[in-house]
């Protein structure tokens, strides 16, 4: 039995990541609690338990004080009884007995079991909180365990994680045993249990995938400047190289597109536009509308508004389906973007010129009327 106990504790240590010493201490506490429950002891201060870490042998020791009159049979022994054991004992001496855990009854055993379970739960809560609190913002591989209407439960190694509804992506099936990667969002508690919350829709999920797949990003040669994402549909990511010999976009795409394809496969085919970041905002905004070609960008610094001119045939491409390309470009750059075609731009310019011409004509006409009116007044004065 003792050998089986040691093997069971070692297995728990391996599977749950709880140190065996914590488990040994939990059983020792359980034995003490079991004695208190079985013999209705008022205190456990005079009780201690030991488990041999090699053999699993369990021992429980009870200390009693030699007294003239016994008031607590669990903590005291009469002088007569002590002398019967050894004539050397005197009042005030301490005796220590070894008890047998096998002598404990069914209730004591249940108490021991409850204490062990509580200790295991407490140790597991602490382990999960400590381990995953340090991994917030990182990627974790996991296996889908089950799915309900709002949440997906995922096994991410030595803990179960929750994928909330608003962190899910419509392209993912979340089928039983499906292997996916997740972004660790936070560690919280629910009904006394630690809960690890993960995401598949967060923009940083894409950022971390690129860090894993692209060595140049992991090493800092290529830096991700910003990410804009509509999960399940399209992502734009702006990158810059800190080494003139390294092409930032090429490094992210990889040879024959293998790197970006691996990320797209993980994201179930979500489209990814890799944009070259530029310190010149005009150049950056122009790049952000990729794959559309930009003819001209006019910016208003104070309002952070950019008017972008594209060829007529590229207007729908620049705006994107339901405005998605323009919307993502605006999020990526942090500027409001107004897109017009060349013909619309010309019409606007012509309308503006015509408006100015009309204003000028009307202003000239008004000035002529004023002069004529003043001349007429002067004539009347001469007649009088």
Report on this structure:
The protein has about 375 residues and is α/β, with parallel strands linked by helices. The chain folds into 3 domains: about 1-130, N Utilization Substance Protein A, Chain:P, domain 4 (2-Layer Sandwich); about 135-200, Beta Barrel (OB fold (Dihydrolipoamide Acetyltransferase, E2P)); about 290-384, K homology (KH) domain (GMP Synthetase, Chain A, domain 3). It has 12 helices and 15 strands. The chain has helices at about 1-15, 20-40, 80-85, 105-135, 205-215, 215-220, 250-255, 260-265, 280-290, 315-320, 325-335, 340-384; strands at about 45-50, 60-65, 75-80, 95-100, 140-145, 150-155, 160-165, 180-190, 195-200, 220-230, 235-240, 270-275, 295-300, 305-310, 335-340. The strands form 4 sheets. It has a 5-stranded mixed beta barrel with strand order 5-6-7-9-8. Strand 1 (about 45-50) and strand 2 (about 60-65) form a beta hairpin. The longest helix has about 40 residues, at about 340-384. The radius of gyration is 39 Å and the shape is elongated. The relative contact order is 0.06. Mean pLDDT is about 85; it is low at about 380-384.
């Amino acid at each position: 039995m003792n050998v089986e106990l040691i093997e069971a504790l070692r297995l728990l240590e391996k599977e749950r990541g709880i140190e065996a010493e914590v488990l040994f201490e939990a059983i020792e506490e359980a034995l003490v609690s079991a004695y208190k429950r079985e013999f209705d002891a008022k205190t456990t201060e005079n009780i201690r338990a030991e488990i041999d870490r090699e053999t699993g042998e369990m021992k429980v020791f009870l200390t009693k004080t030699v007294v003239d009159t016994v008031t607590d049979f669990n903590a005291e022994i009469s002088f007569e009884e002590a002398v019967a054991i050894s004539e050397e004992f005197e009042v005030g001496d301490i005796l220590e007995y070894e008890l047998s855990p096998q002598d404990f009854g069914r209730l004591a055993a249940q108490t021991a079991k409850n204490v062990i379970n509580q200790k295991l739960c407490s140790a597991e809560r602490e382990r999960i909180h400590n381990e995953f609190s340090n991994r917030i913002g990182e990627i974790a591989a996991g296996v889908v365990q089950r799915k309900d209407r709002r949440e997906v439960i995922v096994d991410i190694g030595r803990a179960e994680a929750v994928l909330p509804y608003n962190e899910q992506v419509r392209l993912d099936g979340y089928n039983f045993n499906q292997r996916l990667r997740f972004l660790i969002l936070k560690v919280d508690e629910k009904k006394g249990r630690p809960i690890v919350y993960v995401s598949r829709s967060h923009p940083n999920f894409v950022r971390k995938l690129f860090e894993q797949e692209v060595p140049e990003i992991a090493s800092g040669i290529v830096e991700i400047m910003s990410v804009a994402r509509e999960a399940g549909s399209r992502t734009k990511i702006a990158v810059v190289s800190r080494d003139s010999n390294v092409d930032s976009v090429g490094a992210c795409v990889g040879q024959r597109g293998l790197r970006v394809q691996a990320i797209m496969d993980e994201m179930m085919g979500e489209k990814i536009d890799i944009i070259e970041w530029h310190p010149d905002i005009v150049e950056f905004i122009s790049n952000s509308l990729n794959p559309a070609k930009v003819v001209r960008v006019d910016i208003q610094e104070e309002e952070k508004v950019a008017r972008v001119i594209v060829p007529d045939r590229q207007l729908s491409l620049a705006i994107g389906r339901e405005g998605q390309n323009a919307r993502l470009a605006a999020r990526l750059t942090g500027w409001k973007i107004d897109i017009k075609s060349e013909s619309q731009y010309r019409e606007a310019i012509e309308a503006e010129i015509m408006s100015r011409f009309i204003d000028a004509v009307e202003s000239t006409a008004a000035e002529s009327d004023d002069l004529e009116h003043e001349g007429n007044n002067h004539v009347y004065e001469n007649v009088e």
